[in-house]
Design a protein that fits this description.
The complex is a heterodimer of chains A (about 300) and B (about 250). Chain A is α/β, with parallel strands linked by helices and about 300 residues long. Chain A contains 10 helices and 14 strands. In chain B, about 80% of the residues lie in helices and about 0% in strands. Classes of the chains: A alpha/beta (about 300), B mainly alpha (about 250).
């Protein structure tokens, strides 16, 4: 579905916003790009949607050379960019209907599909309200409805839930889950639980490069321990022998058992610090891989790639 | 392109005009009124100081300015807004709408938005100047050329904007430089040479309208040059806009 080899992007010929990215995505999967701000996720998405021309590399999408023949690829994709907003004086129905006509749907098909998508996303009751009078969650879901109604083979969603409350985010998750299977979805997000909940594969990026990739379980297995103790308020590490990462003025200690995590927490409390114990999540993998990548001197043993 | 493909593009242009033009007219009437105020206020001042005679010049100038400003130059702000603020253009890249249809759709939506204002000017012209219906056979094609020129120039300039605020500002500045300063609201013969009217497509149209409707005694060479210049500008700005209206971004 997507095959990218050595993709790179530089704007000034010196600094590379994207460096030597290889990516292979199979049909019907949800692939999430994770990474901090400036990691290169949006640049990669803009190249994959054919909006931005790469400085280096090859790109095949849906069997077509997307760099030479982008016009053959474009109608088969749908893209909701980061910070996209709906036009404020139209209604959700008008937005989705018009988008479908622009995608080549007949007027009657556009009406039917717009209704279907709005009903699926719980927007049918507000179909005639103008966007200005709707909450941020409804606006964002209206944009997702465009992608849902499009029947595109490949859908790109760049941070679709940023700024939404917990309820609206779950509404968008449901919509993305519905897309799964019919379409391949490339998602970028800062929300780890979103990536864990939706992804078949996660690609972790930092500084324009791919740091690691795999299923959620594969990535979780790349770092030691089952539990993490977040320790702060102490100056000296008290966890010699454990893997840890120093993140600003706190330590993330990776341990195998809940007993170990309790021991560290108790010791930390005794020394006047504070500790938070929890199970390991994808967030810890991201922190470990990215911080370990750049701040090796402040990290314990790194057992990942 | 197949017939089906051409129909898809035409349909998309019309839906774009409905979506971004007509719905705005219906739901945002305050903007419409405010966009009319500039040309109307000039007409009022001219009438107060010059009487009904200058009101006729003012109405023709107002019509020409409304076509270029509301119908054309505002495309700078709107195209920049859709591209940078709403990321709407980025969403449309992955549709069947091609860049040319996007440009035309946007231009048509601006014209749709300006139509009620143009109607006000035409009604006032009929009430005050009693323009014969047959003259509209000349007036409409000239205004159409002006609309295309202003829209295409506007779209080309919008592709150079990297901040939405600059887009809105530039449309206002262009409206003044091309739609108010040159002989748009006043006769070109008041200037040392009437050929100054050739500097702007808006003053060209206004001068030709004055020649046709008010029978102002301009040299025939000026009128011929005006038509030729307007045609040339239409072609040049259209080519420029179509070259600029590519989907692929370099930044």
């Amino acid at each position: 579905m997507i095959k990218a080899e050595g993709l790179g992007k530089t704007y000034d010929g010196v600094k590379w916003a994207l460096r030597n990215v290889d990516l292979s995505v199979n049909r019907g999967k949800v692939v999430t790009l994770l990474g901090p701000n400036g990691a290169g996720k949006t640049t990669l998405v803009r190249i994959l949607t054919t909006e931005l021309e790469p400085s280096a590399g090859k790109l095949t999408i849906l069997g077509e050379d997307a760099l030479r023949n982008p016009e053959r690829v474009r109608p088969r994709l749908a893209s909701i960019p980061q910070e996209a907003k709906p036009i404020y004086f139209v209604t959700p129905y008008e937005l989705v209907f018009s988008y479908l006509v622009f995608r080549g749907f007949s007027i009657s098909d556009a009406r039917v599909e717009a209704r279907r998508a709005l009903e699926e996303l719980g927007l049918w009751d507000v179909r005639d309200k103008i966007m200005n009078n709707l909450s941020g969650g409804y606006k964002r879901r209206a944009l997702v409805a465009m992608a849902l109604a499009s029947n595109a083979e490949l859908v790109f969603m760049d941070e679709p839930t940023t700024g939404l409350d917990v309820f609206s985010r779950r509404g968008v998750w449901d919509a993305l889950a519905r897309l799964k299977g019919n379409s391949t979805v490339i998602l970028t997000t800062h929300y780890i639980e979103e990536a864990e909940f939706l992804s078949d594969e996660v690609v972790i990026m930092n500084n324009g490069a791919v740091v690691s990739r795999g299923t959620v379980n594969e990535l979780l297995s790349k770092i030691n321990g089952e539990y993490v103790v977040e320790v702060y308020g102490i100056n000296k590490p008290i966890f010699e022998g454990y893997s840890y990462v120093k993140l600003n003025n706190r330590y993330l200690v990776y341990v195998d058992t809940s007993e170990d995590s309790s021991l560290i927490a108790q010791e930390c409390t005794r020394m006047g610090g504070k500790a938070l114990m929890r199970r390991k999540t994808l967030e810890d993998v991201v922190i470990r891989l990215i911080e370990g990548w750049y701040n090796d001197e402040s990290s314990g043993d790194l057992d990942s790639d | 392109m197949s017939l089906q493909g051409i129909w898809t593009q035409i349909k998309s242009v019309l839906v774009f005009a409905w979506f971004y033009g007509w719905l705005a007219v219906v739901r945002e009437p305050f903007w419409l009124v405010s966009s009319l105020l500039n040309p109307l206020s000039i007409v009022v001042i001219m009438t107060v100081f010059g009487g009904v005679h200058y009101m006729s010049f003012g109405l023709l100038g107002g019509l020409a300015m409304a076509v270029s400003s509301s119908g054309g130059f505002t495309i700078i702000g709107d195209a920049t807004y859709l591209r940078l603020e709403l990321k709407f253009q980025s969403m449309l890249i992955n549709t069947r709408l091609n860049p040319i249809s996007y440009t035309l759709g946007l231009a048509l939506s601006e014209l749709t938005y300006a139509l009620p204002g143009l109607a006000v000017f035409i009604i006032l012209m009929q009430l005050i100047m009693h323009v014969p219906a047959s003259l509209y056979l000349l007036i409409v094609p000239i205004l159409t050329l002006e609309w295309v020129t202003a829209s295409m120039l506007g779209f080309t300039l919008s592709t150079l904007m990297n901040d939405v605020r600059y887009g809105w500002s530039l449309s206002g500045i262009l409206g003044f430089l091309l739609g108010t300063l040159p002989p748009v609201f006043y006769p070109a013969y008041l200037l040392p040479t009437p050929y100054v009217a050739l500097v702007s497509p808006v003053s060209i149209v206004s001068t030709v309208l004055q020649y046709i409707v008010l029978r102002v005694n301009y040299p025939l060479t000026l009128i011929r040059l005006s038509i030729i210049t307007l045609l040339a500008e239409t072609v040049v700005f259209t080519i420029l806009a179509l070259r600029k209206s590519r989907w692929r971004s370099i930044r």
